[in-house]
């Protein structure tokens, strides 16, 4: 038997809690409101575009940093939606989902000891990403109920070792959408401390505007002086309901793009060629597609929120993305993992324990997250089951 230790890095993080909950849900026949993937069909036109590409024999490696047509489509869409000019030859790297994009960027930019600021709760991948890339994460809390951050605390966390800050906007798991004022404040610190900003914008089109607040997607790359300091990480997964396609992209200043492309090339060579061809079609869909996506998600959110409230959860209504963070302290469980196991086994609904979004698990010990990227039937069935929670 092999007796030497495995990589120290690999021992420092656990298997994904979110994907573990998906497996547990399957095992117990629970409705899976944990991992954020749609259970409804992907758009017919995209499936056809992908099938057409396969039959047209777009079946070999694309250019490692992305098929030209797809990069051109990314540049066009970025101009259309964000008003930013992007050079597809020097500023875009197509990768296998934004998951690969974020780790590519970190591996391309970080040296051991460099600090990366991460708001918490955070999307769980950022923690192993930091370990694998030798980044030292520095956490700054987003505080419920509005998930705002303390500006003095953020400023005090920046220092000369700060290489970058990761901003997930719209935010998973909180549903926060950063305001222009917040983005400008973060930008001013990046400029002052010569730091980069890595923005995860995969929920850019999933927003819930309301009358009493300006809910709009602002990319850090749109903020004055930040275009040359920002790497936008994006993906087809959520906007086009194709999480299994694994097609994402990074938009980065040319000085950084070369390093990102090299890391990407030797990690994966490239994203699936026929799906990049379908991606070029997807990114040229008209505005109505995004309006519809947003309207449909609003209906789902507005259905699940009262269900959770009636079942005894304290909810934090999201302004963006497709998750609802909740406080479960009223149920009297020792912690979020115990509560989640109970919910899966006894009630038949799976969620994600809040501790998986925090560096200190105790901070999320009375929170769980539900996703609502599901069919009406799925959400209705979950509602029926959740109604039994108070009586169990
Ligand atoms: C904030 C965030 N970033 C990245 C990902 C992964 O996206 P992709 O499928 O593009 O790798 C997810 C998936 O849930 C996410 O919520």
- Distinct ligands, ions and cofactors found in the model: pyridoxal-5'-phosphate
Query: Approximately how much beta-strand content do the residues carry?
Result: 5-15%
Mean pLDDT: 96
Sheet with the most strands: spatial strand order: 2-8-7-6-5-3-4
Count of DSSP E strands? 13
Q: Roughly how many Å is the radius of gyration?
A: 21 Å
Q: What structural category do the secondary elements indicate?
A: alpha/beta
List keywords for this structure.
single chain; 392 residues; alpha/beta; seven-stranded mixed sheet; 40% helix
Verbal overview:
The protein is an alpha/beta fold and 392 residues long. It has helices at residues 8-11, 17-28, 44-55, 68-82, 97-109, 126-132, 151-157, 180-192, 254-268, 273-282, 287-310, 336-347, 376-386, and strands at 31-32, 92-95, 115-120, 136-141, 162-168, 196-200, 230-235, 248-251, 314-316, 323-327, 349-350, 352-353, 367-371. The model has no long low-confidence stretch (mean pLDDT 96). Pyridoxal-5'-phosphate (PLP) is lined by residues 36, 97-99, 123, 168, 172, 200, 202, 235, 237, 243, 248.
Topology:
Elements lengths: L7 H4 L5 H12 L2 E2 L11 H12 L12 H15 L9 E4 L1 H13 L5 E6 L5 H7 L3 E6 L9 H7 L4 E7 L11 H13 L3 E5 L29 E6 L12 E4 L2 H15 L4 H10 L4 H24 L3 E3 L6 E5 L8 H12 L1 E2 L1 E2 L13 E5 L4 H11 L6
Helix pairs in contact: 3-10, 4-10, 5-6, 5-9, 11-13
């Amino acid at each position: 038997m092999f007796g030497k230790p495995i990589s120290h890095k690999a021992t420092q993080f656990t298997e994904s809690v979110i994907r573990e909950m998906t497996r547990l849900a399957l095992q117990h026949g629970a409705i899976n409101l944990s991992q954020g993937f749609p259970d409804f069909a992907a758009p017919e036109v995209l499936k056809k575009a992908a099938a057409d590409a396969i039959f047209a024999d777009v079946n070999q490696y694309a250019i490692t940093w992305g098929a030209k047509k797809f990069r051109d489509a990314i540049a066009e869409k970025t101009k259309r939606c964000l008003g930013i000019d992007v050079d597809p030859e020097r500023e875009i790297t197509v990768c296998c989902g934004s998951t690969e994009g974020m780790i590519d960027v970190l591996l391309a930019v970080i040296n051991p000891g460099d600090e990366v600021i991460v708001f918490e709760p955070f999307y769980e991948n950022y923690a192993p990403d930091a370990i694998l890339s030798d980044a030292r994460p520095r956490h700054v809390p987003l505080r419920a109920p509005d998930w705002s951050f303390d500006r003095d605390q953020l400023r005090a966390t920046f220092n000369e070792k700060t290489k970058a800050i990761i901003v997930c906007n719209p935010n998973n798991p909180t549903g926060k959408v950063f305001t222009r004022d917040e983005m400008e404040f973060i930008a001013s610190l990046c400029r002052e401390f010569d730091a980069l900003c890595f923005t995860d914008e995969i929920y850019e089109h999933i927003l819930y505007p309301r009358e009493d607040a300006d809910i709009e997607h602002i990319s850090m790359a749109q903020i004055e002086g930040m275009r040359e300091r920002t790497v936008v990480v994006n993906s087809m997964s959520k906007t086009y309901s194709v999480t299994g396609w694994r097609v994402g992209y990074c938009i980065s200043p040319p000085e950084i793009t070369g390093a990102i492309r090299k890391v990407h090339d030797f990690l994966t060579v490239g994203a699936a060629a026929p799906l990049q061809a379908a991606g070029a079609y997807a990114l040229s869909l008209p505005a109505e597609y995004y309006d519809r996506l947003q309207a449909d998600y609003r209906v789902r959110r507005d259905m699940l929120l009262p269900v959770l409230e009636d079942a005894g959860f304290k909810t934090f209504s999201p302004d963006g993305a497709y998750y609802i963070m909740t406080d479960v302290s009223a149920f009297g469980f020792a912690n979020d993992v115990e509560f989640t196991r109970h919910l899966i086994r006894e009630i038949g609904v799976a969620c994600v324990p809040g501790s998986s979004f925090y560096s200190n698990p105790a901070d999320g010990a009375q929170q769980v997250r539900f996703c609502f990227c599901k069919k009406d039937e799925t959400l209705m069935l979950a509602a029926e089951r959740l109604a039994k929670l108070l009586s169990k």
